[in-house]
Amino acid sequence: MELTEQFDQAIARSKELTKRPTNEELLRLYALYKQGSEGDVNGERPGGFDFKALAKYDAWAQLKGKTRQQAMQEYIDLVKKLEETYR
Predict the structure, then answer these.
(1) Which residue range forms the structural domain that includes residue 81?
(2) What are phi and psi of 59, to 5 degrees?
């Protein structure tokens, strides 16, 4: 199976977890998803007091330079780990 197909399946499976992962795990999922689907972070860092948007931007920015394929594989691996913990 192609990496992109595995990535798409992992995205769908991540939405089927029966318990909520930790905030750190959710941020990691978000950052890997964005890096895998869009590549390096783009746009301005959010300002003000939108702490959720800042955390998401910063998590994604930490992955700058990681290839989309690496991010997709790490996302797939993380979803497998979360399935073992939260299903």
Answers:
(1) 3-86
(2) -65, -40
